[in-house]
Amino acid sequence: MSTEPMPPLPPVVIRPVSPDDLAEIKALHALAFGPGRFTRTAYRVREGTAAISPFCLAAILDGRIAAALRFTPITVGGSCGALLLGPLVVAPDLAGQGIGRELIRQGLERARAAGVRLVLLVGDAPYYRRLGFAPVPAGRIVLPGPVDPARLLAAELEPGALGEFRGMVTAAA
Prior knowledge:
The protein is α+β, with helices and mostly antiparallel strands. The chain has four helices and nine strands, in the order βααβββαβαββββ. Strands 1, 2, 3, 4, 5, 6, 7, 8 and 9 form a nine-stranded mixed sheet that branches. The longest helix has 15 residues, at 99-113. The chain is globular, with a radius of gyration of 15 Å.
């Protein structure tokens, strides 16, 4: 984990996502990511899954959703005990204030407490490295579509967990 000082977090309330939040989160995704988001490989994994898992979080600031984090239960080569993190979205006017990092920190804590052993994501290593993520060895874990191997990252919530996962990522039943 990072030891760099964090700026003071705005006065957000972090809570689980509810079905009533989905329209606002969808609008935030459209604003932040645009229509190209649907072509990404990680979206293929999430297709057909519930929009909310017990690990999804929202950050509320001044009565609006300032940020949201989705976690999708997955299997890797048939092995359970893993989540796919993403998307993480922060309102553009609030980016860089630590809200996304706090959502991830709390999400990982909740996942660890629930017995999740591994969290995967496709993202920028410099950002996620400070949150405990590291590159997955090339070829060890495969997603159902193209992914830059340098962007496939994992956080072991149980020491040594990555070594126990190998194969294709699919949404858990």
